[in-house]
TrEMBL record:
NAD(+) binds at residues 12-31, 89-92, 172-174, 211. GO terms for molecular function: histone deacetylase activity, NAD-dependent; NAD+ binding; protein-malonyllysine demalonylase activity; protein-succinyllysine desuccinylase activity. Belongs to the sirtuin family. Class III subfamily. It catalyses: N(6)-acetyl-L-lysyl-[protein] + NAD(+) + H2O = 2''-O-acetyl-ADP-D-ribose + nicotinamide + L-lysyl-[protein]; N(6)-succinyl-L-lysyl-[protein] + NAD(+) + H2O = 2''-O-succinyl-ADP-D-ribose + nicotinamide + L-lysyl-[protein]. This is NAD-dependent protein deacylase. NAD-dependent lysine deacetylase and desuccinylase that specifically removes acetyl and succinyl groups on target proteins. Modulates the activities of several proteins which are inactive in their acylated form. It comes from Sediminibacterium sp. KACHI17. The keyword Transferase applies. It comes from the Bacteria.
Length: 231
């Protein structure tokens, strides 16, 4: 049996929406009544860390109670036939719980926390982070999340992965949040590309196969198309 083709999948909030995880930004620019910069920026953290901690504590509870959906599971099933690498903008662990074994989290992980000073001091967390909870350096613990106005440390690794793709798929992301949206620019022009979304983003579909439906239905269609092409 020959070497498996490398299938790289960039996922966003749309893949977890069917699991009941609310998408990051509603049309009014608010996130559960909060301006996103209040709860997802260094400025918001400096202004009211207790508010930010409670906001992410609630996200953590919601995600702990959510279950992976058929889209997560369907991508994991494709590991039988392809070398599947997930690059996700999501902070949930639904890809892992769905069975995927190679997942890169661009924007952090809700079940980890870190020192507010030292990014390398990272710890697992399943419950709540409270004001006064400190890392071993004595500084307050904060969510292990990449906020707006912060660099994305794993983007270079993601670019390297995108460059090596034999097939590239985008699922449930509007392709407007950079630098993640720019990954498509690093994918070789000649390889097959697919976009799955309920509303296909404004991209050049001359070189991309659009699958305009939910993530779960779209991954079923993707499985069929990819396996037909392997025959």
């Amino acid at each position: 049996m020959g070497k498996k083709q490398k299938l790289v999948v960039l996922t966003g909030a749309g893949i977890s929406a069917e699991s009941g995880i609310k998408t990051f930004r509603d049309s009014d620019g608010l996130w559960e009544g909060h301006d996103v910069y209040e709860v997802a920026s260094p400025r918001g953290w400096k202004k009211d860390p207790a508010l930010v901690l409670e906001f992410y504590n609630q996200r953590r509870r919601d995600i702990a109670n959510a279950l992976p959906n058929d889209a997560h599971k369907g991508l994991a099933e494709l590991e039988q036939y392809f070398d599947v690498q997930i690059i996700t903008q999501n902070i949930d662990d639904l890809h892992e719980r769905g069975g995927s074994t190679h997942v890169l989290h661009l924007h952090g992980e809700i079940f980890k926390m870190r020192s507010e000073l030292d990014e390398s001091l990272i710890y697992p967390i399943r419950n709540d982070i409270k004001p006064g909870d400190t890392a071993e350096d004595g500084h307050q613990l904060r969510p292990f999340i990449v906020w707006f106005e912060e660099p994305v440390p794993k983007i270079a690794e993601a670019i390297d992965i995108a460059r090596t793709a034999d097939i590239f798929v985008v699922i449930g992301t509007s392709l407007v949040v950079y630098p993640a949206a720019g990954l498509l620019d690093y994918v070789h022009r000649s390889i097959p590309k697919y976009i799955i979304d309920k509303k296909i983003p404004a991209v050049d579909t001359n070189f991309i196969t659009p699958i305009e439906t939910t993530a779960s239905e779209g991954v079923k269609t993707l499985q069929r198309l990819l396996l037909e092409n392997k025959k």
